[in-house]
Design brief:
By secondary structure, this protein is an alpha+beta fold. The protein is built from 14 helices and 15 strands. Strands 5, 6, 13, 14 and 15 form a 5-stranded antiparallel sheet that branches. The longest helix is centred in the C-terminal third of the chain and has 30 residues. It is elongated and about 115 Å long. Keywords: Membrane, Transmembrane, Transmembrane helix. This is Hydrophobe/amphiphile efflux-1 family RND transporter. It holds the Pfam family ACR_tran. It comes from Nitrobacter vulgaris.
C-alpha cells in the first residue's frame, strides 16, 4: 500500500509534511478571506444625472440610447437599470463569473462612449460614470455630529475632501461610496411672478449665468511678434467662475434702453446650499452621512478591514470639534467569530485525539503522530483552496474542520 512506503521512509514523510506546511502557510497569507463564497457575478455600473428630468424622460432620452449600445457586450449575462424621479440613472451590467472586472469595465465604457452623442447636452455636461462594482459590502461607516453641532452639508463636504479619498486609496477597497451626498452648490430661487411680469423665463436666467460665470483664458500682452522696443510680456488674469451669492446676484440678465440693468438678484433669491436635498440620514437623532466600503474582487476582507479601521483612527485626530465616526456594520465580525470557533474546535480535537489514542494504544509515539498529522493536513488544505481559486469563507472553513464533532461523540 501507499502508506507502507512512507512508514518505511520516515524522513521522506517528514520532508513532505514540512513542504505541505510551508505551502499552506504561504497560501494563508495570500488566500482571499470573505464571509461567503464568491458566487455573485462581477458587475459594471453606469451612472448618469439629468437634473430636473422625470423618470419617463430619463427612460426615453438616456436609458434607451445607452442600453441599446451596451446590450450584447462580451461575456455579459444580463443587465438592469433604474430611472429615478430625482434625475438619476443607474445601469448595472452583470458578467459571467470569473471574468476580469477591469476588462469588463473597458468593454462597457467603449460601448457607452458611442452613445454620448445621442444624450441630452445636460447629461453630457454632467458626465457619465462607468466603474466596476462588487456587491460584497465590507463596512458601513457613519460620520455624525454629536448634538447637531454640524449640519449634514458640512459633514458631507468634510467627508468628500478629507475622508473619502483616504479610504478609496486603501489596497483591497473596490469602492468607497458616500450615500446621500449633499455637494455645495449655488442655489437660485426664482420669483416666478416677477419673471413673468418682465417677460422672462428661467431659461433666460440660466443662459445669463452660463455666459457670465466662466473660466476663460484671456491671453497675453506683449507676446511675439513684438517691436524692438517692447520690454515686457504680461499674462492677463480676470475673474473666473463666481463663488459668492453677491457675485451671482450681480449677473446682468439684460440691459434696458434707459441705461438700467436687470440683475439676477432682482428676480431671484441666491444662497449657498446643498445641490440636492432629497435624501438625509441620522444616527440616534444626530445628522450624519454614511460611507459604504466595498471589497475589490479577490481581496482579503480581514486585512482590508484592519487597514480601514487603522485609517479611520488616523483620520479621527483631524476631525473638527463635534464630528465623530462609527462603524455601524462590519461583515468581518462574523468571519472572525467563525475562525475563532474553528480554532477552538481544532484545539479540542487535538486534545481528544491525543487522549483517545494514548488510552487505547498506550504509546506516546503513536499519540504524537496524529496530533502532528492533523494540523499538517489542515494547513495544506489552504494551498489546495488557493490553487483551485477558492476563498477562505465560513463555508470552506467549516468544511475543513469536521473532526471536532466526531471526536466529541467519542
Amino acid at each position: 500500500m501507499l502508506s507502507d512506503y512512507f512508514i518505511d521512509r520516515p524522513r521522506m514523510a517528514i520532508v513532505i509534511a514540512i513542504v505541505i506546511s510551508l505551502a499552506g502557510l504561504l497560501a494563508l497569507s495570500r488566500i482571499p478571506v470573505a464571509q461567503l463564497p464568491d458566487i455573485v457575478p462581477p458587475e459594471v455600473q453606469v451612472s448618469a444625472v439629468y437634473p430636473g428630468a422625470s423618470a419617463s424622460v430619463l427612460e426615453a432620452t438616456v436609458a434607451q440610447p445607452i442600453e441599446s449600445r451596451v446590450v450584447g457586450v462580451d461575456k455579459m449575462i444580463y443587465m438592469k437599470s433604474s430611472s429615478g424621479a430625482d434625475g438619476s440613472y443607474n445601469l448595472d451590467v452583470s458578467f459571467a463569473l470569473g471574468t476580469d472586472p477591469d476588462i469588463n469595465t473597458v468593454n462597457v465604457n467603449n460601448r457607452v462612449q458611442t452613445a454620448m452623442a445621442s444624450l441630452p447636452p445636460e447629461v453630457q455636461l454632467q458626465g457619465l460614470t462607468v466603474q466596476k462594482r462588487t456587491s460584497s459590502v465590507l463596512q458601513f461607516i457613519t460620520l455624525y455630529s454629536e448634538g447637531g453641532k454640524l449640519d449634514p452639508l458640512t459633514i458631507t463636504n468634510y467627508a468628500i475632501i478629507n475622508v473619502l479619498d483616504e479610504l478609496s486609496r486603501i489596497s483591497g477597497v473596490g469602492q468607497a461610496l458616500l450615500f446621500g451626498r449633499e455637494n455645495y452648490s449655488m442655489r437660485i430661487w426664482f420669483d416666478t411672478a416677477r419673471l413673468t411680469s418682465l417677460g422672462l423665463g428661467p431659461s433666460d436666467v440660466i443662459r445669463a449665468v452660463q455666459a457670465q460665470s466662466v473660466q476663460a483664458p484671456i491671453g497675453r500682452l506683449g507676446a511675439r511678434p513684438i517691436p524692438e522696443d517692447q520690454q515686457f510680456q504680461l499674462n492677463l488674469q480676470t475673474q473666473g467662475r463666481l463663488t459668492t451669492p453677491e457675485q451671482f446676484g450681480a449677473i446682468v440678465i439684460r440691459a434696458n434702453p434707459d441705461g438700467s440693468v436687470l440683475q439676477v438678484k432682482d428676480v431671484a433669491r441666491i444662497e449657498l446650499g446643498a445641490q440636492n436635498q432629497d435624501t438625509f440620514s441620522r444616527l440616534n437623532g444626530d445628522p450624519s452621512v454614511t460611507i459604504g466600503i466595498y471589497l475589490s474582487p479577490g481581496a482579503n476582507a480581514l486585512t482590508v478591514s484592519k487597514a480601514v479601521n487603522a485609517t479611520l483612527e488616523k483620520l479621527r485626530d483631524r476631525f473638527p470639534e463635534g464630528l465623530q465616526a462609527r462603524v455601524v456594520h462590519d461583515s468581518t465580525v462574523f468571519v472572525r467569530d467563525t475562525i475563532s470557533a474553528v480554532i477552538k474546535a481544532l484545539i479540542e480535537a487535538f486534545v481528544l485525539v491525543g487522549i483517545v489514542v494514548f488510552l487505547f494504544l498506550g504509546n506516546l509515539r503513536a499519540t504524537i503522530i496524529p496530533i502532528i498529522a492533523i494540523p499538517v493536513s489542515l494547513v495544506g488544505s489552504f494551498a489546495v483552496l488557493l490553487m483551485l481559486g477558492y476563498s477562505a469563507n465560513s463555508v470552506s472553513i467549516c468544511r475543513l474542520a469536521p473532526m471536532p464533532s466526531q471526536y466529541q461523540r467519542l
